[in-house]
Amino acid sequence: MARPLRFIPENSAGVLVEVSCRTIEALPLLRPSRRLNEIAAGVIGRALEIGPGDGALIVGLAGIYQAVTGIDSSAEMLAHTAQATRKEKNISLIHADFLEFSNEENYELIVAAMAVHHLPSPAGFFHRARRLLKPGGSLIVAELGGRKQLVGHDENSLGGWDPQSGRRLWTLQPRIEGDFNVPAPVVVGQRLMIATENNGARLYGFDKLGRIIPQPVAENGFLAPDMSTAVHAAGRLFCVWNGLFCLDSRNLKDVWTGKHKDLQDYGAVFASNTRVLAVGRGGSLLLVDAQSPQMKIISQLDVLPDDDAENYSHPALVGTRLYLRGENQLVCVELAP
């Protein structure tokens, strides 16, 4: 990191924050777990909107989801929503604080349009929302066992699907139920690595028909992230989980585990064959040697020193620039020398 940092100019920061509120927050803040079998059947479960306001978005969701709930701590705003949604039979409204209301339901989609920045604890919002989402994570496309397939989680299992027909090719049930299944599966050659909070890291092979072999090739019970996704580079797997893990991708044995105050239960990781860039708490950037026999930090930069909360918004790497969204600002870091 020869050039330490470039902030977006101060005179445009207000505009960028407003744009982030109106565009990023208007998108699903946490990834919906739209299960393939439900989509095929035309049934897409439940959705929740925090702060439904004039009702425009929640009415649209009602046309897609079986049941939609709106929650707002303002009785006055909720009255406006009730008026706008009075004709919709599958919308229910709750007058309560999102961070405190009692609810046993889970949702495929949680949306907050221009609401998170008004909450007393944005970090608390993400923790609460994550627990209300039904299990389900990212879909990936890979050629495994000589067969191109979509791989991802539904509510209870891992599966592979034919991308042309949508036909399910295989199902893998976890030994221990209850994983959030947020971390994406990682392709390691012709194998697949899965890491979840209840079952740890497992490496699976595939047969000649492209079906997963249920018995793992290798396991590591210490790497058990509930949110962080590992990356594969230089014959190693790197993942943030109360530190930075480095595993041998052939057998999932520990090469090293490095502790750092900014690497806690979540962190994004980018990697090449020579370098690993880990993004930790408060926008801490750690550049690590990918080939070292122990954790070797080459350089470190704190780009959001006043933002000590964990940031669940994944950074975007565009060319040589890294964009990070903090609690109150958008930061651009120039990585090129």
How are the SSEs ordered, and which strands pair?
Blueprint: E1 6-7, H1 10-24, E2 28-30, H2 36-40, E3 46-50, H3 56-62, E4 67-72, H4 75-84, E5 91-95, E6 109-112, H5 122-132, E7 140-144, E8 147-153, E9 158-161, E10 168-172, E11 186-188, E12 191-196, E13 200-204, E14 218-220, E15 231-233, E16 236-240, E17 244-248, E18 254-258, E19 268-271, E20 275-279, E21 284-289, E22 297-302, E23 316-318, E24 321-325, E25 330-334
Parallel strand pairs: 3-4, 3-6, 4-5
Antiparallel strand pairs: 1-25, 2-6, 7-8, 8-9, 9-10, 11-12, 12-13, 13-14, 15-16, 16-17, 17-18, 19-20, 20-21, 21-22, 23-24, 24-25
Explain how this protein is built:
The protein is α+β, with helices and mostly antiparallel strands. The chain folds into three domains: 1-7 and 234-337, Lipocalin, CATH 2.40.128; 34-132, Vaccinia Virus protein VP39 (Rossmann fold); 138-227, Thrombin, subunit H (Beta Barrel), CATH 2.40.10.480. 14% of the residues lie in helices and 34% in strands. The protein has helices spanning 10-24, 36-40, 56-62, 75-84, 122-132; strands at residues 6-7, 28-30, 46-50, 67-72, 91-95, 109-112, 140-144, 147-153, 158-161, 168-172, 186-188, 191-196, 200-204, 218-220, 231-233, 236-240, 244-248, 254-258, 268-271, 275-279, 284-289, 297-302, 316-318, 321-325, 330-334. The strands form six sheets. Strands 2-6-3-4-5 form a five-stranded mixed beta sheet. The chain has a four-stranded antiparallel beta sheet with strand order 1-25-24-23. A four-stranded antiparallel beta sheet has the order 7-8-9-10, with no helix packed on it. A hairpin with a 6-residue loop joins strand 9 and strand 10. The radius of gyration is 21 Å and the shape is globular.
